[in-house]
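> call design_seq(struct)
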């Protein structure tokens, strides 16, 4: 009777460990998603800044001709 109970206890422990790891993976995936969102917003802002600067530079170049 000892071995079946030990097997059940170890099985439950394994499922509990997998549950904890799944929660950790979920939290890290959420954090990564937030970082990707922040980085995308920063890239879009830099792209807009570059476009505005290029437009002004082109206008300056046209006025010099």
């Amino acid at each position: 009777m000892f071995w079946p109970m030990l097997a059940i206890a170890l099985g439950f422990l394994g499922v509990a460990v997998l549950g904890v790891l799944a929660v950790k993976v979920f939290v890290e995936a959420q954090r990564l998603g937030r970082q990707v969102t922040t980085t995308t917003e920063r890239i879009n802002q830099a792209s807009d800044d570059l476009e505005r600067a290029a437009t002004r530079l082109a206008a300056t170049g046209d006025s010099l001709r």
